[in-house]
C-alpha cells in the first residue's frame, strides 16, 4: 500500500469519487433551478399545487433575444440534469466499476477511468432535448398558448392533448424498450461496451438517448404544470426514479399512463 501512487489510491475509490461527483452535480443543479435558473424570476411565484394551474389574466410575452434564448436553453438543460442524473447514477457507477476491472486485467489501456466522459455523453443527449424543448416553448408562447411569466399552458385543450399523448406513450412498446435499457444497466453496458474515451462518450450518448426516449413525454408535461413549477419538477423527478429503480417500475409506468389519459379527459371536459 505504501508504494501506491496517489492516482492508484484514487482509482481504488472510484465508486466514492463518482458517486460524490454525481451528488454534487445534482445539488448544484437543484440550487440553480430553485434560485430562478438565471431568469430573474421567483420560482415560488411560479409554483402551485393547483391542477390545472390557474390561467393568469392577460397575455404575457417575453422578448426572445439571444440572451433570453441562452437562458432558456440552459434552464432546461440544468433542469434535466437535476431530474435525470439520480436515475442514471446506477448505470454510471456500474460503468466506472466495470471499466476499473477491465483496466486491472489489462483489457483497456487507459489509466484514468473515463466516467466523466461517459456522463458527458449522457448529458449531451439531454442538451439536444433541451434545444427542442426551448424551441417548442417559444412556439407555444408566440401562439398565445403559454404564459411567458408563469411558464405554463393557458389552454385546456393543449394541456389535455399533452396529457393524452403522454398517457398513450406510457403504454407504447417504444416506451417499454427504452425503459428496459434504463432499468437494466448491466444489460446495456454488455450490449454497448466500447473501449477508450471515444467509446465512453458514445456509450454515454446512447444511454442518454434511450433515457430521452423513455422520459421525453414526461418532461413535456412541464408545459402543462409549469416549466418552473417546483411541485411538478420534483414530482416528475420522483416519478422517474420510481419508474426506473423500483421492482415494479413497468407496472407503475403503465398504471400512470392510464391515469394520465383519465386526467386528460378531466382537463378537456372541466
Structure, described:
By secondary structure, the chain is mainly α. It has one domain (6-46, 63-269). It contains 11 helices and no strands. It has helices at residues 6-12, 14-34, 66-104, 115-142, 156-170, 173-183, 185-192, 196-220, 222-225, 230-245, 249-269. Helix 3 runs parallel beside helix 10 (230-245) and helix 6 crosses helix 8. The longest helix is centred in the first third of the chain and has 39 residues, at 66-104. The protein is globular and about 65 Å long.
Number of helices: 11
Radius of gyration: 20 Å
Task: Report the strand count.
Answer: 0
Structural class: mainly alpha
The biggest sheet, with number of strands, parallel, antiparallel or mixed sense and barrel status, is: none
Tell me, briefly, the overall form. Answer: globular
Low-confidence stretches: 1-11
Kindly give the count of domains: 1
Helix proportion range:
over 70%
CA(first)-CA(last) distance = 69 Å
Mean pLDDT: 87
**Element pattern in H and E:** HHHHHHHHHHH
Query: How much of the sequence is in beta strands?
Result: under 5%
Summarize the structure.
This protein has 270 residues and is mostly helical. The protein has eleven helices and no strands.
Topology record:
Layout: H1 6-12, H2 14-34, H3 66-104, H4 115-142, H5 156-170, H6 173-183, H7 185-192, H8 196-220, H9 222-225, H10 230-245, H11 249-269
Amino acid at each position: 500500500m505504501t508504494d501506491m501512487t496517489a492516482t492508484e489510491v484514487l482509482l481504488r475509490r472510484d465508486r466514492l469519487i463518482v458517486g460524490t461527483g454525481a451528488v454534487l452535480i445534482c445539488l448544484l443543479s437543484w440550487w440553480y433551478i430553485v434560485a430562478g435558473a438565471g431568469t430573474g424570476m421567483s420560482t415560488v411565484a411560479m409554483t402551485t399545487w393547483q391542477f390545472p394551474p390557474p390561467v393568469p389574466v392577460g397575455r404575457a410575452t417575453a422578448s426572445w433575444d439571444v440572451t433570453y434564448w441562452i437562458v432558456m436553453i440552459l434552464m432546461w438543460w440544468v433542469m434535466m440534469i437535476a431530474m435525470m442524473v439520480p436515475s442514471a447514477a446506477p448505470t454510471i457507477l456500474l460503468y466506472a466499476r466495470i471499466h476499473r476491472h477491465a483496466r486491472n486485467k489489462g483489457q483497456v489501456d487507459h489509466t484514468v477511468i473515463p466516467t466523466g466522459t461517459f456522463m458527458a455523453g449522457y448529458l449531451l443527449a439531454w442538451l439536444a432535448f433541451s434545444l427542442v424543448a426551448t424551441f417548442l416553448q417559444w412556439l407555444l408562447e408566440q401562439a398565445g398558448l403559454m404564459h411567458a411569466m408563469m411558464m405554463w399552458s393557458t389552454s385546456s385543450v393543449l394541456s389535455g392533448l399533452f396529457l393524452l399523448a403522454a398517457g398513450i406513450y406510457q403504454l407504447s412498446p417504444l416506451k417499454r424498450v427504452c425503459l428496459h435499457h434504463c432499468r437494466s444497466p448491466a444489460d446495456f453496458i454488455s450490449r454497448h461496451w466500447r473501449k477508450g474515451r471515444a467509446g465512453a462518450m458514445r456509450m454515454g450518448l446512447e444511454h442518454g438517448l434511450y433515457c430521452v426516449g423513455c422520459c421525453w413525454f414526461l418532461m413535456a408535461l412541464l408545459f402543462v404544470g409549469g416549466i418552473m413549477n417546483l411541485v411538478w419538477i420534483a414530482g416528475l423527478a420522483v416519478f422517474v426514479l420510481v419508474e426506473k429503480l423500483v421492482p415494479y417500475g413497468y407496472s407503475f409506468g403503465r398504471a400512470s399512463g392510464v391515469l394520465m389519459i383519465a386526467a386528460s379527459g378531466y382537463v378537456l371536459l372541466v
